[in-house]
Fold:
Amino acid sequence: MILIAACTMVAAQTTKAQEWPDEKKERPAQTPTEKSFSMPYDWVNIRDYIYLLGKAKLIVELNHPEQYDELMHVDTLLRSFMQEIAFYRDSLQSAGGSVRIDYAVDEVAPQRKLRFKKHPADGDIFMNQDGEKARLKVDQDTVHIYVRHSPLIPGDPVKGPFNHRVEYRYSHAEFYQLTFCLNSYTDLAALIADNRFLLHAFDTLKGTIRKGTRNNAFKAPSSAIYDRWREQTSTARDAFTRGTQARFNRYSGLLVSESPNKLGIEGRSDIFTITANVGAGVLRNTWAPYAEVGMSLITRRKNPWSGDFAHRGYSLIASSWFFFERQPSRDYRTYNNWFVNFDFEASKKESVGVGYLFSGAGQYFKGTTIRTYTNIHLLKRGLTICPELIFTDDFRQVIPAITIKAF
Structure:
């Protein structure tokens, strides 16, 4: 007789890996302790997912594609890890629940560090099969290995322009990390004994790296999902569904989740856009329709000291207020006043700019006219409030204004 009262419900659930962020959300700042056991988030230029047997998986995070050559000797690294934790095996196996093991290897210093985090079980679950009772383990163990090695790509990070130094610092192949999400950390022994599948997966993933990532991994990061055991179906009707059901997919950008239902991709490439806005402004006590059109370049640059991305935007925009004046014939005439503007955006919430009147009409602006303004972005850029000062009549007059722009 087989009693699987509790384990039936458990088997229907997907096992979870401890402490691995699987949602697209703002990641917290790393503490000094965390930095000694893992790469800073933005050092990762390649993030690949390899699915193993039994719902286990391996997450590979690299600076550069060349580090896949280093991983062809992963069995040596794993043997070293198993030897390091052998002394603590009794303590780990008596923990119950699940455990996270962090292993930091500095081949330059050289030194090695270990850390254990034990997670109590969410209740005890037992299975009774033919009179044999056994405790079931639901939560997976996590083995996180962080390696610092000698740089694979030669170069001098001190010389050259600032952007070159930044890209070198974060893509010159000095750090990588592996995260194993296993039903038990002891399953690593089987991977060491037969590593043919891992070596084949590494070779496949390296061979599919895009040319842009090979040339500059920092600017063109990428991710892949390799699931040899995924069951492919012929019922997929659209390209997106077929992609999520494929055994191998390569993505332009870093995946923050490998779940097909919530794929999120982080990119670092510069973005060039054409912008257009309409709205209305108040100059002194006069309302006037407003329109602008232009082009923008959005860049993201790494600060090598703080580790944060600096968001920068540069825009060249043509804009105009439209004034209506009544003629002696009682008809209305529209006067366009066109400015050429340059915007600088230091954050996603606001920007500053300056404009020059190159085509004026009517009596509202006279002589040399310059405008200075601040754009305050609201509702995810769907609405912008723009307070400004306009210097006209060869800087002899100052006109305060405020403009509201949509889109």
Summary: The mean pLDDT is 78.
